[in-house]
Amino acid sequence: MSNLSALLFFLWAIAILTLVLFVLPTLDRNRIREHVESNGGHVVEILRDWFGGFGGRSARTYDVTYITRQGERITAKCITGMMSGVQWVTTRPPGSMSET
């Protein structure tokens, strides 16, 4: 492998790593926060579940703690991706009928 191709491979790997570790999680957290707040809730914490097992390759799993518009504190699991939006896996999603 020539020095130029090794350098290009290294730069490509750094770009992919940056995307996966910094850019995608930021976009995911913004998407989740907007979803909760659009239903009258307030996000307390969003934690990545690295071993969640949901969502496959194109979506990531998060544990979200939020306060409902009625003041109830809930922790729920969701998956999100660029093309899938926010899908709630456990507990009640914000704005669900059981929440009102």
Instruction: Calculate the terminal CA-CA distance, rounded to whole Å.
Output: 62 Å
Structural class: alpha+beta
What are the segments in which pLDDT stays under 50 over at least 5 consecutive residues? Answer: none
Order of helices and strands: HEEEE
How many discrete structural domains? Answer: 1
- What is the molecular shape? elongated
Strand order of the largest sheet: 1-2-3-4
Largest sheet: 4 strands, antiparallel
Secondary structure: number of strands: 4
Gyration radius, rounded? 17 Å
Strand content: 25-35%
What's the mean pLDDT score? 85
Query: Helix proportion of residues, in percent?
Result: 25-40%
Number of helices: 1
Tell me what you see in this structure.
Strand 2 and strand 3 (73-81) form a beta hairpin. Helix content is 36%, strand content 28%. The chain contains 1 helix and 4 strands; from the N terminus they run αββββ. Strands 1-2-3-4 form a 4-stranded antiparallel sheet. With 100 residues, the chain is of the alpha+beta class. The mean pLDDT is 85. The longest helix has 36 residues, at 3-38. It has one helix at residues 3-38, and strands at residues 42-48, 60-67, 73-81, 85-88. It has one domain (3-99).
Structure summarized in a few sentences:
The chain has 100 residues and is of the alpha+beta class. 36% of the residues lie in helices and 28% in strands. The mean pLDDT is 85.
Secondary structure layout:
Blueprint: H1 3-38, E1 42-48, E2 60-67, E3 73-81, E4 85-88
Antiparallel strand pairs: 1-2, 2-3, 3-4
